[in-house]
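Thread: "does anyone have the structure for this chain?"

Original post by V.I.:
We have the sequence but no experimental structure in hand. Need at least a predicted one for the grant figures.
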Amino acid sequence: MIDINQFSKWISSKSNSPVLIDEISVQRIEEFVSYLTNERDCKPATINRKINALSTFFQCMKKKKFIMENPLEDFQRVKVPDSERVYLSREEVEAIIQAIDHPVLHHFAMTMAYTGLRVKECIHLTMKDVNFEEGYIQVINGKGGKNRTLPLSKQLKVHLEEYLKNHRPPTDSLYFFALKKTGTVSGQYVNRTLKDACEKAAIKKHVTSHILRHSFASYLVKKDTHVAVIQRLLGHASVKTTSVYLHVHQDDLQAAVDQIDF
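Reply from O.Q.:
Generated one for you, tokens below.
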């Protein structure tokens, strides 16, 4: 909805008046893409997300007979350059977690690293969602509104039990990870904490909460975990989505060529 509102404001400003839906042409969309690229400096993935949102909107309008054609039906998406995703080694993950002094954020980052949870999924965990007796974490209303159950590793279980016993502040909040002042944790605070921890641990990589999730998947790939298992743990609807984590490490390339013995 935010993307559609942005386009609506832009085209109204461009035309200096409200614009009817059936008056929006492919040329107008191209001008909007140019505006996002040159004036807003948006990344290709961001631009494509906005195009997809608009396309869904126009398709809905077409079904309701407000317009005859969807101007974005055959609209070419912006090419996203291929790039190696940032991931952390086991040692780097450990160093970052150890560099986080705040006990709530320390255990929050540890949980992300052990489970591959999205940051919002971790934020929204409630006390009832972490079942120590049966050893699982229940993700309620994850991305796409889907629920999933993740097994709780023995190591993480010990750390989280210690967190509840000694570090979770007294609060009426139902959230598992709660700060005394707010009763919850924000994604911005998590990312700022990770940035500070990287500086303290002398790690030069740009690390966000999503990099912990990516590193979780990368570590499982290195351990030869089947892609379907990683897919279930990450909560992806398709193996195709999971495949972005199956990057080739430089060590793997070296090991491959070292096998050649003509």
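V.I.: this helps a lot. The two ends are 59 Å apart (CA to CA).
O.Q.: and The chain has twelve helices and three strands.
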